[in-house]
Amino acid sequence: MSNLNKLIVQEYLESLKEDTELDALFPTLLTLMGFRVIANPKDSKGQPQYGKDVIAIGKNESGVKCKYYFEVKGGGDRNITNSVLTKEDGVIESLKEAKYAIFNDFTDGNFANLPAIVVLVHNGEVRRNVRLTFDGFIFREFKDGEFEHWDITKLTEMFSQYMFNEYLLTDEKSLKLFKKTLILLDVPEYDFTDFKQLIDIQIDKYTDIRENRVLKKFLATMNLLANMIFHYSKENNNLNPAKDCVSYIILKLWAWILKNKLSKKKPVLKEFDKILKIQYHVLKEYFNKTLPFALEENGLYGEGGFYEEVGYPIRLFDYINYLTYYFKIAPKFDDEFSLKNSKNTLIKLISNNLEGLRPLLDNHSIAIHNTLNYLVENNENELFTEEEVAFVPDFLNTIYASLCITQNLRKRFPELNNNIEVVIEAIATREKPHNYSDKSSLLITMLFEYLVVFASKNLYNMYSSFFKNKDINLQVFYPDYENNDIEQILFEREILEEGGVETSVLLDENFEDFCIKIKNKPVENIKYITDEVGYDFLRSLAHLYYKTPIFVEEWRKYLKE
Q1: CA–CA distance from 64 to each of 57, 58, 59 (Å)?
Q2: Is residue 148 within 8 Å of 158, Cβ to Cβ?
Q3: Rounded distance, CA 30 to CA 20, Å?
Q4: 54: which strand partners?
């Protein structure tokens, strides 16, 4: 690896904080080096660690099996100064505890008899003015072979060799894309194309799934890239890049796992869960920062003048999509997650931002579906709360009213091809451009069929005649399961050619006839591998990220229950 590449690795490692980043990555490095990690920081969070942040079994330079006690220092303690050396829970105290405090691993009967090696790990250096004191302490307390010192130089070598070298920085194109990403990460309107190309290159490199060692490195590389993009997004105080890029990693990696039939391999799922957990923390931090403002009256409205006619709805529907996804993934990583609080939060968000609840694009149907789906799928004891009973008709009525008003005033429905540029032109000029397409709609069909799900006769009677009298073709989207691996493609890109539309959806004179007709429609009973292994929420991520239309069975299934 070139000196420039090592400099990139070193600069990244030097900036890591002990609690949130260095501690999280270090066990992965040890695993790739051949250690068996038996205890790590997350296992003992909030408990005395006695100088043993990470405990592992491995072989020393002579090939002798040993037990390793790693004391990890980072953040403000990454450079060993006089204060860091001598303070309470400082280096001297921690290393003494690592040496003398007894730890037993009952999963390895011979653990107690293994020779012990204490390792000080820190992503900095020992300052020159404390070097003599530090060396003197080590000389007195440890015999030859009982202590190792892994500073920033050592860590850079190890991370370069075991986590970067084989995949990330071996070719010039990957290095160029990586550096370009870091430079442009916080530039407004940057679409992260370089980072996505970098991920695609790493995935394309890996073809030999039989080699377990290489598989571990590949998954660790994806983990490291997710960590790095999260880290630099936080440094820039802008989590949008991490929200987008980590989602891309997860979708592409899951498609690759499906393609290679690794979805039931526990070691693979264990590593995949690590990346999912990074995404959970990205979204948790993102919503912790933004929700207090978003939940205020018109909290997602920006001071953008004319642009907010477009920006407010776009921002709201995108926010709904990621919030509902976050609520779906959170229970996997948060034992204290509250379903009741999440539904109340979703309802409050939308209720306080009703002025932005104006579908401009047909794929805004995804956010509408995600809202209603979250309420239906998470319906405890099959009973809706009073808030939910009141919210659903108001939610649907607001959307219908918006569609009718826009049609009456501007003579347009949501743009079918999801072309935001022609929508902006239409709003700016108050004229519908010639390339504005709204003669068909998936969104409006879904709305009327959801009226059947919720038995909303009053809303049907209020709005059905309006839409029957308009020149619009109501459609639903069917994926072609017979001729395509729809599940894999779903996580790779937007599904277009691999599906078709039903155009025979007609509104009846009365609600009862419409209900009978819709309930008699056939529904595909698709069994997704993704769902079987406990990642059903990933399908929501795929739809919101690639803008693939919601498959019709996703709401018609409620009519068959």
Answers
A1: 10, 8, 5
A2: no
A3: 17
A4: 70
CB neighbours of 412 closer than 8 A, spacing ≥ 6?
406, 426, 432, 436, 438
How many CB atoms lie under 10 A from the CB of residue 476?
Answer: 22
What's the CA gap between 224 and 218, in Å, rounded? 10
Q: Which candidate, 48, 51, 272, 47, places its Cα nearest to that of 141? A: 51
475: helix, strand or coil: coil
- According to DSSP, the β-strands at 54-59 and 65-73 are antiparallel
536/531 Cα distance (integer angstroms):
4
Alpha-carbon span 94 to 100, nearest angstrom: 10
Q: Answer for the pair 115, 67: CB distance below 8 angstroms, yes or no.
A: yes
Q: What is the C-alpha to C-alpha distance for residues 296 and 300, in angstroms, rounded to an integer? A: 8
SS3 471: coil
Quick check: pTM over 0.85?
Answer: yes
- What is the enclosing helix (H) or strand (E) of 72? strand 65-73
Are the beta carbons of 433 and 370 closer than 8 angstroms?
Answer: no
pLDDT tens digits for range 254-298? 999 999 999 999 989 999 999 999 999 999 999 999 999 999 999
Chain segment 409-456, per-residue pLDDT in tens? 999 999 999 999 999 999 999 999 999 999 999 999 999 999 999 999
Q: Are 10 and 124 in contact (CB under 8 A)?
A: no
State the pLDDT at residue 49.
47
Cα–Cα dist 270/12, whole Å: 25
